[in-house]
Amino acid sequence: MKMIHKYNMNGLNIVIDVNGGAVHVVDDITYKVLDYYEDKSIDEIKNILQSEYKEEQIDESYNEIKQLVEEGLLYSEDEYELHPSFVDRKPVVKALCLNVAHDCNLKCKYCFAKQGDFGGKAELMPLDIGKKAIDFLIENSGNRRNLEIDFFGGEPLMNWDVVKELVKYGREKEIPANKNIRFTITTNGVLLDDEKIDFINENMHNVVLSLDGR
Predict the structure, then answer these.
(1) pLDDT reading at 130 higher than 80
(2) Is 210:187 a contact under the CB 8 Å cutoff?
(3) Which of 6, 30, 58, 81 has the fewest C-beta atoms under 10 angstroms from its C-beta?
(4) Torsions phi, psi of 73, nearest 5?
(5) pLDDT class for 213, splitting at 50, 70, 90?
(6) Higher-confidence residue: 77 or 5?
(7) Domains with residue ranges and CATH for the chain
(8) What would the 3-class secondary structure string for the chain be?
(9) Distance CA 122, CA 104 (A)
(10) Dist CA 9 CA 152 (whole Å)
(11) Is the pLDDT of residue 79 over 90?
């Protein structure tokens, strides 16, 4: 598929040939002519732009575009081919974001998650669903050894007992499956206490604090 991408930035008209990677800075008329170059004849383009540009200007711009196309610098062919090993390959899952809590203790009105419940019923993930998710990750990870699970919400600390049990379950499952699970958690931090901090330090690789405000 032949493709170009046009955009304006810092007062410049920029055109990228997607397949070839060539980048062009063009004048206003060429930027306009490119809107019609592939689908319309030069006479049709002149008719469309006659109120804005002179005929000789349009001819000059059209010929410059044509030359770039002939040199393979615009509308170049897509010559990329997938390696046979990628064709019909079974998808590999390497990470999960587990929304263990569709609820939040802060319920900020501006939250992208609609105050934590994502616009639905406020509820917490049952342990058995979390275990099935971990099983799914391991079973569909192919030969990838390093996996990642992020506990997310809402506020995942509201479902802390399930978080702890899922970490324990993941540790039990990873060794016989020859996997290494990296646990992380995204939290506003309000519900943290010494017990939770110690557990996170001992069992998780990363904590993302998402608390906004002063």
Answers:
(1) yes
(2) yes
(3) 81
(4) -105, -5
(5) low
(6) 5
(7) 4-70 (no CATH), 95-209 (3.20.20.70)
(8) CCCEEEEEECCEEEEEECCCCCEEEECHHHHHHCCCCCCCCHHHHHHHHCCCCCHHHHHHHHHHHHHHHHCCCCCCCCCCCCCHHHCCCCCCCCEEEEEEEECCCCCCCCCCCHHHCCCCCCEECCHHHHHHHHHHHHHCCCCCCEEEEEEEECCHHHHHHHHHHHHHHHHHHHCCCCCEEEEEEEECCCCCCHHHHHHHHHHCCEEEECCCCC
(9) 8
(10) 37
(11) no
With tokens 């349009």, the residue in question is 58
Find the length of the chain.
214
Residue with tokens 């990750």: 137
Q: pLDDT of 152-175, one tens digit each?
A: 999 999 999 999 999 999 999 999
